[in-house]
Amino acid sequence: MKPVVPLWVGVAALAGLTGCTAPEAGGDQTEQGAFSPTYLGIETRLLDGDLVNFIVSMEGARSTDDVSHYARCAAAQYTLIRGYGFARHVRTKVAQEGGVWRADAVYTISAALPPGVRQIDAEVVVAHCKNEGIPTV
User: How far apart are CA 16 and CA 114, in angstroms?
Assistant: First the structure.
C-alpha cells in the first residue's frame, strides 16, 4: 500500500518557494550599485633573486579579496615580464584607511611549477585579470 501524502503538505512546500527568485546576471552587484573600483597603482620591489614584494592600492573594493586579486594580477604579469611562467604566493597583508585599500603581497617567481598549494600559472592569471578589467604591472 502506498503512503498517501495530504494535499496541504504539497501546497505548503510550494508556498515556501514563492519568495525564491533567480539571481540577477552580473553577480558583481552590490547594494550601492555596480562594482566600480579605482585602481591606484602597483609598487614592485625585488627582495631577493626570486622573491618579489607587490604593494597595490585601490578604492571601491568590496572586501579584502578584491585587493588581494589585484596584487595577484600584478604578480602574474611581473612573472611573465621576468621571463618566468609560475609564481607561488607567500603572504598578503591587507589594510584599509580612509576608503583606500592596500595589499602588501609577497610571491616567489620561477620557470618551473613551484612546490606548494598556492601556485599560480602566470599566463592563465593574466588572461583572467584582463577579462575582469584588473590592471597588471
Answer: 50
What is the Cα–Cα distance from 91 to 103, expressed in whole angstroms? 10
Q: Rounded CA gap, 75 and 87, in Å?
A: 7
The tally of CA atoms less than 13 A away on the side-chain side of residue 103 is 29
For the beta carbon of residue 52, count every other beta carbon within 10 angstroms: 22
SS (H, E, C) 85-122: CEEEEEEEEEEEECCEEEEEEEEEEECCCCCCCCEEEH
Q: Given CA atoms 65, 70, 74, 77 in this order, what sign does their dihedral have?
A: positive
Condensed to tens digits (0 to 9), the pLDDT of residues 88-104 reads: 999 999 999 999 999 99
Residue 43: all three cell numbers together: 609598487
Closest C-alpha to 38, from 128, 105, 134: 134
pTM confidence score: 0.75
All cell numbers assigned to 126:
593574466
The amino acid at residue 89 is H
Run of H or E including 51: strand 51-59
- pLDDT value at residue 123: 97
